[in-house]
Amino acid sequence: MAAALGPGAGSGSRQLRLPGSVAEVEASRKGPRVGAFFDLDGTLVAGYTALVHTQDRLRRREVLPGDFLRMMRLAAEYRLGRREFDSLIEAAARTARGQLAEDVEEMGERIFRQSIADLIYPEMRDLVRAHQRRGHTVVLSSSSLSMQAEPVARYLGIDHVLCNRFVADEDGVLTGEIERPTIWGSTKASTVQAFAAEHRIDLAWSYFYADGDEDLGLMYLVGNPRPTNPGPQLTRVAARRGWPVLRFSSRSPASPLSGVRTLAGIGSLGPVAAGALGVGVLARSKRAGVNFLTRYWPETVLALNGVKLNVTGAENVNAQRPAVFLFNHRNNFDVFMVAALVRDNWTGVAKSELERNPLAGPLGKLMDAAFIDRADSTAAVAALQGVEEAARKGLSILIAPEGTRTDAETVGPFKKGAFRIAMATGLPIVPVVIRNSNSVAGRDSYRLSPGTVDIAVLAPIDVRGWTVDDLPERIEQVRKLYVETLTDWPGTRS
Question: What is the pLDDT of residue 430?
């Protein structure tokens, strides 16, 4: 892909701004007259939200088998070109007939939180935010129903949603019909045109991100067409017209391959644990066996799932051991990444809910980890005493000071527990800053996607001389290191 300056870029700029990149958007014309239109399925979200909704309703027996089979037949006929999209979406609307509109919207929000939020491409989220920073009018334009589109829009902070909507009677009960005209293909393009005219958007400066062949009409309307994970026809047209094509693999809907990778990673615990047991028996040391497990299992899980670590400051991992290793928490696999760096002679701190997990619970107890009840400060302090004792015996501590997983672009407030452990034991603090673990797994995902995660290990921080009185200030200074590192990543400074 050739580098190009985005519209409105200064002629003296030397930064390469590839079409479809955040840098291009950041160099574009400012203001609400520039529109940024985003499709939903296959563009913002990996896979089809309608399929996720149908699967959820089937599990809950909210869709009759006859209705489901009818929808599957219509979907197949649509794929074969024997049906129009209208018939497919009308069939979906009929399955909701008689339900309260507010109940259906609440269901959409629940399904989004449980199953769809982690399918949002992090690259697309970055592009949405880049357009928002430029003051552009950002619009989610989709043929999906409102219960599928609006939760995504709310999550991404998108104020404008053009989508298909249910018809409700005066009592708020769905009639089984949708508002006309159905938004699809040419009507989607005309809906966007009408919206642009109403909001005085200059389409010549605007962007459209979509994957479907049916979205070609909109691609022709805007000055910056951005085919995203495009279908075959859209791919051919993009090649002929020189449109930049965006393809992302950081998210994928549940598939046999991703399932096999996940099971292989988790399943590797068996042979690694067997090896650990043998090592422990031969050495007559529980810690020797645990060290074998913590040295090889995290590496195996990451390797089997195609996850690589790009580490800056690796020398700081072993500069002073033992230490309290702090890491910013983004998803369920962060601890595997930090463990792959620290390798052996460590234990950790986790939330109390994990103690009941059939995998994490026994493993944590084997490693003498502390399970903290965040709602009970007295019990939490008592649980940390065991970790302090382990630290005094030479074990490093792995802990996420935020206490919970947070959004990928923020650093949450730090809790005091990790810092109190460091002060009580005299161990140095080693900040481990993770930049993009969301590129391989969503916040609540239990599946990994192949990719490279950037990690910066900062120099150890001596806590000797810290006092209870100045602890809040010290904690904020450490947190500031994370914010500054994420803002100005080591090795990228000009």
Answer: 97
